[in-house]
Design a protein that fits this description.
It is built from twelve helices and no strands. It is mostly helical. The longest helix has 15 residues. The chain starts with 33 loop residues before the first helix and ends in a 7-residue tail after the last helix.
Amino acid sequence: MQARTSEPASPVTEARTPIPAVADGSCVITPAYWAEACKLLSRRDRVMKRLIPQHGTACLESRGDAFTTLARSIVGQQISVKAAQSVWDRFSALAPELDAAQVLRLRIDDMRAAGLSARKVEYLVDLALHFSEKNLNETDWTSMDDEAVIAQLVAIRGIGRWTAEMFLIFHLLRPNVLPLDDVGLIKGISHNYFSGEPVSRSDMREVAQAWQPYCSVATWYLWRSLTPLPVAY
């Protein structure tokens, strides 16, 4: 799953490649609506009816840690999935539990030595400050609509709309997110619905009408149609 150039609030070209899920001991949460969504999508959409059985019981997973989800998205900006995982492994090894407070205690030289650019170090520090100073309404996220959460997140340096949409999908497990700038979704729709022909945003919205209210689930299966390995933040 990747995103095209988006319109972030801060001057940043966003992350395009989420890091693969790894057995790091983090909490994993799965959406309660998944089975219901699969039944509805299979009934309404011929492509979903074909794709869903190919992936067994695999489904969307959340780590349950908002800071880690956003930090991983920043680390993975503009580099391959493999490179992103390598940098994350070195970065997370700098502290036993990589939370906001610990990031603020890290030496910049050590963060750079882990493979982070100077810009990504700035973004991670700004993210850590937002969490440590409690500038984010985390307790309100569950009651906020998608656009309200996105508006809050894009105020953080290094986070634009695409990353915020990935946060909605992978952390909050929102069921009906349609990330129109995501290259993986664009490719998935092109390949599965238009025989590889280019697709417009209008085309994507038309296809997605059948997915309501489970666009996130359909998007996940289209990502899997391109690469079977599930990814997570």
